[in-house]
Amino acid sequence: MSSATDRLNNILVELPKYKSQWQLNVANPYVRAYDLAVENFQRTLKAQEARDRMTAELFVFAASVLTGSVMMAAFATASLRVLAGRAALRVICNNNLNRTFDLMHAAASSKTVMFALGGILDEAKKIAGKQVMSAAEKLTSSAPIASSPTAINFMTRIEDFVSVNHICVHDFTAGVRDDGSISEADKLKLADLVGKTPFCNPPATRRVDENRLAQKMELLFYMSAVLDSDRLVTYSPPAGGSAPGTARELVYGKEAIPQMPSAADYPKEVVPRFTGKMFQPFEPGKRVEYANIGSAVRERTDTLSRMLAGSSFYPEQNFAEKLLVDPTGSAQLVKAEQIINRLAADARPKQLTDIRMI
User: Which has the closest alpha carbon to 358: 100, 172, 50, 90?
Assistant: First the structure.
């Protein structure tokens, strides 16, 4: 029977291969799919404003929804800080990641270490708590990263993530091997546990359909644009009265709506109330308006929706209506949220070592 040291050394020898398999079969094709999705997205939007938004936030959005594995879910969790200025997007990502880790029965406080040591933390801590803490520290401490909306930037981000998890598993395994206070029996037990971690169970073959995943990502980007299109308008009619939405009304302000359309506290319309006061005859009302995201975006969204969801996203329009009328409204926002949830559910791993084909 092999000694504990031999078993642990054998694991250390295999770790570089596991790292390469994660990189080859999940990480690299994921980034290539993202690069294709962004290229198509940019081609559709064309405007400089759209290109300026191609930052890390959309990559983290995709990784949070189209996870496929605990690796991508943990990467997205560790990267959520890039969404600091996008309240609605952060809500979507947090909700999906919480559902993913809940399904995998992962502790809420340990999401970032789930790729390296998921499934063994509780048992490992009982025997080698010092080694667990020392290895996990490397996953929770990082220097600021230069952000650039390029494939090479995202490729290296994931490479760094896989590498630091490799180091985490390596240091934990080597620490257990070299700790004279841990008995032979406990070292053998820990060797068995390390073999069950997600990092040590990479996919042997490609788990990403790059073209299909690129289409899903691109559709997600448009769904994000739809969810970003609503604004809460505070307004009042002039003293003589006026129908809402006309040029005569007084608009006090427009603000982004952070709530999802399904949220109980999503803003509701408030009709201006007549007070009869001389200088302010109406109490301001509130309504939701929707920004026009453009006919080219709507057409591409419909194409992808038919391919991936089986039906058009927008209602039928004739040629003139497509150019002049943006039908985006509350129904589209609800539908966008539903499509995001459906894509997330299809890609969500059911357990820590489950690697979905995405």
Answer: 100
CA–CA separation, 263 vs 141, rounded Å? 34
Domains in the chain: boundaries: 4-207, 230-290
- Torsion, Cα 82 87 93 94, to 10 degrees, reads 100
Q: Which two tokens stand for residue 45?
A: 């939007």
Collapsing DSSP to helix, strand or coil, 250 comes out as strand
pTM metric for this prediction: 0.88
| DSSP string over 71-115 | HHHHHHHHTGGGGTT-HHHHHHHHHHHHHHHHHTT--GGGGGGHH
Token pair 């899903």: residue: 216
Walk along the chain (358 residues) and give the pLDDT tens digit of each residue: 569 999 999 999 999 999 999 999 999 999 999 999 988 988 887 753 544 455 568 888 999 999 999 999 999 998 888 776 677 888 899 999 999 999 888 765 678 889 999 989 889 999 998 999 888 887 766 655 666 667 778 888 899 999 999 999 999 999 999 999 999 999 999 999 999 999 999 999 989 999 999 999 999 999 999 999 999 999 988 765 445 555 478 899 999 998 999 999 999 999 998 887 777 788 899 999 999 888 888 999 999 999 998 999 999 888 787 778 889 999 999 999 999 999 999 999 999 999 998 8
